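Appendix B, example 12.
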Amino acid sequence: MASAPSIPVTAGLPAEWRDFLALTKPRVMTLVVFTALCGLLAAPGHVNPVIGFTAILCIALGAGASGALNQWYEAGIDAKMKRTAGRPLPAGRMERESALHFGVGLAAFSVIAMGLFVNLLSAAILTVSILFYVIVYTMWLKPRTPQNIVIGGAAGAFPPLLGWAAATGRVELLPVLLFALIFLWTPPHFWALSLFVRTDYAAAGIPMLPVVAGNKATRTQVLIYSVPLALCAVAPWPLGLTGAIYGVTAALLSAWFLLLAARVATNREQIQELMKPERQLFRFSILYLFVLFGALVIDRMVFA
């Protein structure tokens, strides 16, 4: 396993609470918490509000721990990218040891609390999700292979599975499909982003697909992965796991996703500022998950 990339030592200013918050990647955490909450609310039965709140808090802290440990390890890489150079570590506002201790502390607390106050299954899944993101994705896959996002997509797919396990103490077909949905969503989502920030990844030496295979191949892969994504999104409806509210919403959203992916695949622009289809798909992909999971909760409440 490669050692953590090094960054120049800077004196910097003492870290403040905003820097520790930035380590947790709050924007990413929002999607994690939302999909976990939807998994919990869509699960059968009634969840004690205190236990439900504790589960979501632990999931949020686990996600924050993953973000902090990711930034601790990638501080040298972040310093080379315009998009991430302002983060606390590359900007010199915090020592790496502080980020490491913060991340490990959050991770340990979130797993222990989940096991003590929710259930052991959800604590085990949370442990796997943190270790997968930090060790398998951040340390192993990301610096070595352009398939980092494909395999590493599993790291961000755990939240709905976690929410369901926290509510029921078991894993069933619907949360597994939700896991697969986010797993398949991750490549087109991140490849759309990487197409218009390609120079950043190239400067940092990260072998993202556009860097090693070129824009044309990446655009084709975006469309290829969007097809099984659409099928997986709609699948719970014909399988009888959801009702028409979710099914129709999934079908319409997925059709639009496929249309945007097709526009990306046929785009031939090489200049970052002209990559409008890629930007549109990236932004829509975030809305796609929020609306899809929201529709799932409403559907389960109506048809439960």
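The chain is about 70% helix and 0% strand. The domain at 19-170 is CATH 1.10.357.140 (Tetracycline Repressor; domain 2).
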